[in-house]
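tl;dr need the bound structure. longer version: we got a ligand (N-carbamoyl-L-aspartate) that a collaborator sent over and nobodys looked at where it sits. i said id run it. heres the input, straight from their email, havent touched it
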Amino acid sequence: MKHLLSIADLSREDIESIHDLTDNFVEVSRRQIPKVPALRGKTVVSLFYEDSTRTRISFETAAKRLGADTMTFSVSSSSVKKGESLRDTIDTIGAMGIDAVVVRHQSAGVPWQLTRWTDAAVINGGDGWHEHPTQALLDTYTIRERLGTLDGRHIAIVGDIKHSRVARSNVLAFTALGAEVTLVAPPTLLPPSLEGWPVRVSHDLDSILPKVDVCYLLRMQRERMTEALVPTLREYTATYGLTRRRADLLAPRALVMHPGPMNRGVEIAAEVSDLPTATMVEQVSNGVAVRMAVLFLLLGSGTRAEAARVVADA
Ligand code: NCD
């Protein structure tokens, strides 16, 4: 594999082998000195045209834990503000010699465009409303860790599906691994057409909650909304928010997940995010290990045996 652009490019076996590789790196992250020299001499650049806290820091942490050098290119402090084009930007950082670029951009398709302009491995860190493949890899890894398997599990994805690249990548990853997916949202927060999506749809969260193994919540992405798609946030919370009362409808072991950033009090009540069945903290820590696996796959030998060897030697 040369790039990681989309979950759509991955088979079930590809996803499972990234999960297996992740197992090796989870252990490294728990060490006192969480570092292995697997990618020494390699340089990873993060090129972020959109705000991000966890994804950028997570990739940079992953690269550093593998011994790679990292550079950050954030739009607010770069020549992009002076009108530099994407092409010139990638040529400039390419001229410094880079092995991988992690890109986040407000337009769908930018990571594919970059693969035509650079020899570096390109990783999609989120492109518009389209995909966010490493989020789906870390979410499926977290579910596998908690529930053993996704096969035959029922997962509800609740909230602003329309604007969510996380939802698109997760629908693909969850169903590739054998889970059944129900999207729960008001019609205005669903994509105009769901043709080809292997999902069911419901507008009634209360009736779905008792039946699911995972309740995956999404943020209301107000920065992407050009019109009022819900009457008021209060009304949204009343109908679709995972309030404390609603969380009691879940089976005792059902997981509550959220990719972050959370709007506590809107899509999720503060007390619900602190339940033992809530996985947000694990999602973030697994995110680093999953991204280590992805970088190792694209820039290192990528084999499980080699990963086991560098991890054991360090
Ligand atoms: C998401 C994103 O930016 O796509 N966050 C993340 O990467 N963890 C979701 C969001 O912004 O709501």
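gonna send this back to them w/ a short note. Residues 54-55, 126, 132, 135, 165-166, 219, 221, 259-260 surround N-carbamoyl-L-aspartate (CB under 6 Å).
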